[in-house]
Every structure is written in C-alpha cells, then in structure tokens.
Amino acid sequence: MDRITATGGEWVVGCLERFGVRRVFGVPGESYLPVLDALHESPIQYICCRNEGGAAMAAEAQAKLTGQPGIVFVTRGPGATNAAAGLLVARQDSTPLILFVGQVPRGSRDREAFQEIDARRVFGTLTKWAAEVDRPERVPEMISRAFHVATAGRPGPVVLALPEDMLREDATALRLPKGFAPVETHPGERDIVRMAALVDGAERPIAILGGSRWDADAVAAFTRFAESRALPVACSFRRQMLFDNAHPNYAGDLGLAANPALVKRVREADVVLLVGGRLGDAASQGYTLLDIPGPRQTLIHVHPDPEELGRVYRPALAITATPRAFAAALDSVPAPLRRRDDKLVRAAHHAYALWSTPPQDGPGAVQMGAIMAHLEEVLPADAIVTNGAGNFATWVHRFHRYRRFGSQLAPTSGSMGYALPAALGAALTCPDRLVLCVTGDGDFQMSGQEFGTLAQERLPVIVLVVNNGMYGTIRMHQERAYPGRVSGTDLVNPDFAALARAYGAFGESVTTTEAFAGAFARAREHIQNNAGPALLDIQIDPEAITPTRTLSQIRAGTLRA
Predict the structure, then answer these.
(1) What span, in angstroms and rounded, lies between the C-alpha atoms of 561 and 550?
(2) What is the pLDDT of residues 379-390, one digit of tens each?
(3) Under DSSP, is residue 508 helix (H, G, I), strand (E, B) or coil?
C-alpha cells in the first residue's frame, strides 16, 4: 500500500473512493468545507438536499437497495440533529448508514462554541458507534472501522465527527486497499440439518422473513426451499419484497392491522422459522404472537447478530448467519423424505388473496381501492414503491403485490416524511426502474422540500399525495379513544399540484376515481420524456380512513362501547 500526504478532507474523500462509494447525500456547511472542496475533484457525486433529515433518509434508502453503507455529510449542531430522524430509521430498519458531522475546531471543544454538540453523547444511543476523528492520519483507520461496524452483524448507523481544523491539516498515512465487502456469517452444517428436520417433521410450520442483509439470490434460494417443502411464507412488517406476493406459497405480511387469518396461523403453528428479522412490536402484533421468553411454538431463529438470538425470544434452535449465507446453504439440503400436503400452503395463500383484494366502493368521489386495482394492472413488476407513515400506507401494504427483491422502501420505524427522500435515493440508485412514491398530505409536508431536489436532479419519480386534509392516523386514534373530540389533527394544505408545477415539474389534481388512470398515464409520459418528477394530488374523502371502516363508523362504535 502507498503512503501519501493529503489534508484531512482529502483523506475522507479518498477513503470513500477506495471503498467504492459513488454517491453521497448532504446539506453543505462551513464546518466541512475541505471535504466539499475535495469532492470537487472526485468522481463521487454529491447530492445537495434541502434538509439533513431528507439527506439521511435518501442515503438510507440507497443502502437498503445496495447493501452498502449510505453516506451522509451534515454540518454541526442543528444540521446534525436534523439528521437524527434518518439515523432512527437506519437503526430500527437494520440499515448500514454513516453520518459524517462537521465539528467545531478542536481548540474550541467543550466551551459550547457556535453550534457545538458532542456527537458521541448526542448520538450514542441511536447508533452502533459514534466517534470523533481527532487527527487526520487516523482518518483511514476510523473510516475503515465505520464501514465494518455499520455492516457487521445487524447493520445500523455510525456517526463520525470531523473537527473543522483537522480537515485542513496535512497528514501522511497508508492508503486503504480498494473495495469493501461486509463480513458474512455462515450457518453450521449441523444447524442446517437440524433446521430441515424440524421443518419437515412439523404439521403446521410457517416461515417469517424479515430484517436486512438479503439479496435477490437469497430470495430465490429461499423460494426454492419453500417450494420443496410446501412451506407457507409470511413477511414481517414492511418487508413484503422478500417473497413474491403472487407466489402460491405466500401467506401475507405481519404488520399493522395484519390479516386475522395469518395471525391465527402463526399462533397455531407448531414450528416457526424466523429468518433475518427480530419479530418486533409491529410484526409480533404487540409481542403477542410468541410467548416471551419461551415461545409455545418451536422457534428456529436465524439472525446475523448473535446478540439478537435469545434477546427477546428463546429459540429452540438459534443460527447465527446472514440471510444471504443461510439461503445459500439451503440449496444443499436434501429433499424431504415425505412431501407435505399442499393443503396448508394453498389455504394460506387463498386467505392472503382474499385479504389483498381491494374494495371497489367507499365514501367520496375518489376510491382508493379502484386506484390500487389500476396500479396493479399498469405498474411493472420491478417498480420501486416508497412510502412513509400514515393510514394512507395501508392501501399500499395491503393491496399492492410486491413481486421482486428491492421493490419496497418503507420505514419499519414508522417515520413520517420517509417516502419522498426514499424515492430520491431509489431513483438515483436504480435509474432504469419506475419509482412510485406514495405519501400522505401530512407525510409529504414533513420532507416535501426534497421535491426540489428531485426537480433539480430531473429524476423520473411519480409522487402520489393521498390528501385528506388531516393527520389521519392520529385522527383515527382520537375517534377510538376520545370520539368526537378533534384536537390538533386538521391540516390546511397548499395546492400540491400547483406546488409541483412551481418547481417546473408535472402536477395534476385527481378529484374522481375515473380521472386517475388518465392522470397517471400523463404523469408517466412526463417522466419518460426525461422531464423530471410528476405529482398527482389525490383528494380523498376524510371519511375514507381505512379500507373497511369510516371515521363515523369508528366514532359510533366507540360511543356504543
């Protein structure tokens, strides 16, 4: 390896180049000007975002699609704290992310200098590791460690603070080797044999897929394993892309308002094969599906981080392995001596098909069920669908069928404002695929300024704003707990279509169900002409709060009770 002399800022950018980073997200700040200057001569693309939270979420979405750490640069103080929402998404979604924070000069530390925060203390509980690079010659060491920590075991976020004066200093050090690959943990042969024996000997088994560290090959390998054993497969909250939803073995997803038939199936299973996920609050239906700490079902838990195994649920068989390595090992498992009857898997998929058929009626002139049915007809199988948090997301999660790996970007942390930055990250990462951003009026306005970033980069994203003039989820909960006492949930919104046009993009309002197909076709034609993003403002009746119940029905039910 070569020894070279460079400034701290040049070392930062050079190390990222050596690790194969092609793009970083950020909001510029004077605290890391030497890095911005080094990027001027670098092939690394700098995406200038409007808010640090949006930058972090866009980088997190890119990391979900690639498996490599997303990279974010922000300035100190308010810039760093603005990015915290993206750190939480990365933490709860097990996504590798590295946030570089420009810091006050070293001689000013611990005096509460202008915009000073102690990044290690502020972000210590949100990250896998938070540190400060005190000398420029340590930049290669610290960045190398950051990449390995962010991707090892259960991936997550890392924060590195970069003192402003350190970035200007010269240092001589060894260049990093080229390339980076996360460390894989592989299952033992005995564990694979025992796992297969438990699954094959079960009468009512079910697999639940979740977490990160999957890829398309791993999904295909697990699909072959499930087919060979007539094994029903469910996905955990917002991980539906881990199994083809149209496949006859698919049983549905365990998320908010999950299919009661699927919940019953998991509760009555004799063997549960949990691969990659943690079976957290949403997926476990409030920690009710499996007893804690000892599940009544025989639990086989496969996870890349040994500290996760047994942390909440005590498995009968714990396997430390990444989903990629575990799935690859499944191809060597012999076929079962006795093939299970297909009745179980057929019943599971039939229940999912009934549950995921959208309704065709409801209050108001715009029917989201009919819109979802149309989208299922026209969206390509590899379309990437992004969403944030809100009741609007129910329409996507329940009625859209994810067909391929890498087609879903949604925060398991339930973070509002994720949909639009995620679409930004997806469109840059996969420029040859259709990116559909489904967001609510409240969700959009959490990060709507990133529509300007989409327009600036001329990215072909279609944004659907499901607009009901309120924070719908909270309003629904109000009617359940305090019927008729509306407080703090109404929204007075702008003309979202006009806002899009103000950015030089395509914008159109949809006020009837029949108008949607034509508007969507025009939006799609716009992005296909390389003219930048398009936005459709879908104005739905506030009563249409869920696919099955109106606000008035929820209120009346609470009053009766």
Answers:
(1) 17
(2) 999 999 999 999
(3) strand
State which H helix or E strand residue 9 sits in.
helix 8-18
> For residues 1 and 15, what is the distance between their CA atoms, to the nearest angstrom?
13
Lowest mean pLDDT, pick from 11-20, 106-115, 135-144, 198-207? 106-115
The mean pLDDT of 25-39, rounded to a whole number, is 96
496, 537 Cβ separation under 8 angstroms: yes
Give the number of residues written for the chain.
561
Averaged pLDDT of the chain:
95
Place of tokens 């605290």: 31
CB 94 within 8 A of CB 156: yes
Amino acid at 444: F
**% residues pLDDT > 90 (the chain):** 87
DSSP 61-75: HHHHHHSSPEEEEE-
d(CA 523, CA 85): 30
Q: Mean pLDDT throughout 310-321?
A: 97
Which pairs from 330-337 meet CB under 8 Å and 24+ separation? 330/192, 330/221, 330/222, 330/224, 330/225, 331/221, 331/224, 331/225, 332/192, 333/192, 333/193, 333/196, 333/225, 334/196, 335/228, 336/196, 336/200, 336/228, 336/229, 337/200
Over its C-alpha atoms, the chain yields an Rg (Å, rounded) of: 24
Task: Please give the pLDDT value at position 1.
Answer: 58
Q: For the chain, which domains are there?
A: 3-174 (3.40.50.970), 189-354 (3.40.50.1220), 357-560 (3.40.50.970)
Strands 170-174 and 3-7: antiparallel
H helices of 94-212, in order, are 119-122, 139-151, 164-168, 189-200
Mean pLDDT within 300-316: 97
